[in-house]
Predict the 3D structure of the following.
Amino acid sequence: MEPEIQERIEKTVLRILQESDMEQTTEHKIRKQAAAELQLDLSDPPYKAFVKQVVQSFLEQQQQEEEEREEEEEERGDPRKEYDDDGDLIICRLSEKRRVTIQEFRGKTLLSIREYYKKDGKELPTSKGISLTEEQWSAFKKNIPAIEKAITKMESRIM
């Protein structure tokens, strides 16, 4: 393949990729659109392989940039995240008094679902609640469909 054609294909494919909804597009759609714009048959094996390489390279670069952004957010702290007075990450508030947090305790990461009370302007945890290790959380999460099914069954009996 001539270097000039290769450069035109690469520029066109990259532009199309940047303008595309990456959730909806496929390599085939990209190749078809580029072929129409360039008035070339990109279905021939060498062209097809080159377009695939350009798409793959673009996706790898996007993935790397996303990972770098996530690392930067972690390093400086994501301003959208909420932390409690102890520095624990608040995942969500279930009610005014209950919340789900992630905390470190004795070197272990725990997911806590706990009630809180206010004292001297601070929200403090009560003994009412549960803290799950990563293994316990995984076991619980795997069983959520069974729990939902049991709840639905119980609700149908009540009604």
The chain has two domains: 3-76, 82-158. The CA atoms of residues 12 and 34 lie 6 Å apart.
